[in-house]
Write a structure and sequence with these properties.
The structure is a single chain. The chain is mainly β. The protein is built from no helices and 18 strands. It has a 4-stranded antiparallel beta sheet, with no helix packed on it. The radius of gyration is 17 Å and the shape is globular. The two termini are 22 Å apart. 40% of the residues are buried.
């Protein structure tokens, strides 16, 4: 677990005993996530910091373009981070180096959070602040499909917010996603085809 002022604590899961702690001199805005030997957090100044899950010592630090809003779990030697200015970064798990980045600009007004990307079977799935769901290839960041879950509508910027910020659900080849002020939908992950939509609103996901 991590506090907003940078204290990272690791605990034994079966009895709660403290394993290690590391006080980072950073304001933390994303995490904890990671896996495969590292614990990863993101900072207000756009840093990604990876710590050893065994000792808590820093393994690497990478600088992104702006405040880090969400970080994925590790899969196949990579993780994906999202920055507040709309970039998705594919990062090398061992070094933190950027393998690719994709920009999807946010609307004028959006919720102050972002959806945690899902990495599975060689693809990355993420919900965007404009109500769209996107699938990328994990290896190169190529856009495989992009689908609108909810259309922005209303007279005010507040009414037009349709962020997909909460947790996505991927099971049996179907992605379920819900937007703020909009819809819940099921999407065929292989084809990017919407199976169904219903009215719903949630910033927290599924």
């Amino acid at each position: 677990v991590v506090t907003s002022d940078g204290l990272v604590n690791a605990y034994q899961p079966d009895n709660g005993a403290s394993l290690w702690k590391n006080k980072l001199d950073e304001a933390i805005t994303a995490g904890v996530n990671g896996g495969d030997g590292i614990v990863v957090v993101g900072t207000d100044e756009g840093g990604i910091i990876a710590l050893s899950s065994d000792t808590g010592e820093q393994v690497w630090k990478q600088q992104l373009s702006s405040q880090v809003a969400a970080i994925s779990a590790v899969a196949d030697g990579m993780l994906v981070a999202r920055s507040g200015d709309g970039y998705l970064y594919g990062l090398d798990k061992a070094t933190g180096k950027t393998r690719w980045k994709v920009l999807r600009e946010a609307p004028a007004l959006s919720l102050h959070s972002q959806n945690v990307p899902v990495l599975e079977q060689g693809v990355v799935i993420a919900g965007l602040d404009n109500g769209r769901l996107i699938m990328l290839s994990q290896k190169k960041g190529e856009v495989l499909w992009e689908k609108t879950i909810a259309q922005s509508s209303g007279r005010s910027e507040l009414e037009r917010m349709v962020d997909i910020d909460g947790r996505l659900d991927l099971k049996d080849g179907i992605v379920h996603a819900v937007t703020y002020n909009g819809k819940i939908a099921a999407v065929d992950a292989r084809k990017g085809q919407v199976q169904w939509r219903q009215d719903a609103s949630s910033p927290n996901g599924l």
